[in-house]
Amino acid sequence: MSMTATVQNDTIRLPKGTHFPDGTQVIIEPLKPIAGSKVHALGQQLARFAGIADDLPSDLARNLDHYLHEQLP
Asked: How many C-beta atoms lie closer than 10 Å to residue 14's C-beta?
């Protein structure tokens, strides 16, 4: 289950009628980047890895299933 809540004065405000039992653990992440924060979209975080795998087969995209399931000697 997921829902959208609002932060007010460092308190998470759940939508009316929503109740979680005390002790329920939840995951909280902002829907939009927070101004001034160092939290970036996943694509931005992974961009540094772009192009580093330069020894892959030229037909990897077309034959990915073959390479994933190829039996090693």
From this structure: 13
Tell me the two tokens of residue 73.
């000697």
State the residue range of the domain holding 71: 1-73
Q: Which ranges constitute the DSSP H helices of 8-51? A: 42-46
> Structure tokens of 48?
């540094």
- CA pair distance 38, 44, nearest whole angstrom: 11
Residue-wise pLDDT for 35-72, tens only, equals: 766 666 777 788 889 889 888 888 989 999 988 888 65
Residue pair 29/39 in contact (Cβ under 8 Å)? The answer is no
- Closest-CA residue to 67 (of 53, 48, 47): 53
pTM of the model: 0.40
Number of domains in the chain: 1
